[in-house]
Amino acid sequence: MVWARDLNTFIELSCEEYDHSVIRENLVMFFHFQQENGELLDGYVPREAFTWDDPNTYESQTAPGHIGFKNTVETDQETSLIQAINKYIIKTKDESILREEVADKTVYLRLCLAVEYLLSERYSEEYGLIFGATTFDWGDVQVEGGAVVDVDSLTHWSIDVYDNAMFAIALAYMAGFTNNAEEKERWNMMQTDILSNIRIHLWDGSNGKFIPHVYLDASPFPEEFNENLIHYHGGTALAIEAGVLNREEIGLVLSHMKKNVELSGAPSIGLTLYPTYPEEVLGKNISSSYEYQNGGDWTWFGGRMIQQLIAYGLVEEAYELAKPMMERVVANNGFYEWYKIDGTPAGSADFKGSAGVLAKSIEMFYQWANENKTSENKVIWQIGENNNSGSEFALAPNSYSRFIEKDFGRGSTFVIEAKNASRLNQYVQSALLKWRALIDFKFPASELLKGGKLELEMGAEPNENWGIKEK
Question: Which residue has the higher pLDDT, 280 or 437?
């Protein structure tokens, strides 16, 4: 059985371990089931392995040995496959897959048709964003119940950050698939519009979080229920990958996530959402609080947040947050699908999505470590002179820990990092202290004594709006 959304998160690892021709064949098989309107399916399975009851199955004249299936409440099938193909090309350097023909149409043309499907069938002209059924963040279970994974009379169409972040990422990859200047410009402009509209309609700047849903018509929830109290962690991680948030906002949403994990008692940052949806506002047979997608702990998305923290240089934070997810793999001897609030593993013990995101995170940690190796005698950044005086301190890999311990008496290191610093970029634009936004140009000496990290974002012109308020 092959799912596009799962494959997208472990294909890079697969390319390191398996025959590339087999992986290519698995990717191309999806297009044998592409519908006339450009729609793509969730996945497919060999005909003899199709043993479950599904009223909506798909068959293909060009792939008679397989059965296709789709959870129609989702809107990430097309974008997941686009991303998976891009990752395959990066890993294998096999761009020829885009030129392979399936039923007289190249893979690239079929990807274009998939985007057109989203624009014609799942796109809101009013908001300039794509929509789907109302699910838990990135999930495939609609909150109203009914057909659960399929659109039915109970469905309420809504816009969320996960679907649109996935779309924005996919559009950037579409631009990379073509050398045609007009097509490249179209994909780039479309991506810019999606990112802008996510900010306009889904980002709640006053609360530093994303709005769970914008409804095209009515909400499925009672009027007195304030859905905007809920934080969507998975969609937020994908929004960071798409480039929706700046560094200061990333620090802010990360602080929310950590607080939500603490308040909920969840095992890790894989917590899907918080607070959970109470049972009384949900349909029949839908997950209760902290079950499955309604507040379950999913490494599949927690690992993606770890990847983004590493990508944005928040490596120490990423390492600490990744440890619980790594340790439970060893403790439970398996890559479980999700975990309950008490840490009990649930779902499949061989979930490739969990394995894929953790493996990529580990590779990113190694890559960061290799890129940041320095000579023992190389000074990273120095304030004053390293002369052991108590009035100044130096940052150097071979001495700063000992020096700070001697001068400040706490044994904790304090690292200062200037992003984009150069002869031109001499002015502080913003600052993060231990990954929290710093709105003042000073902070208590006690924070220095505790150890930690001060990150300064540098620019060529003074930012007269920063550092003018008392914290």
Answer: 280
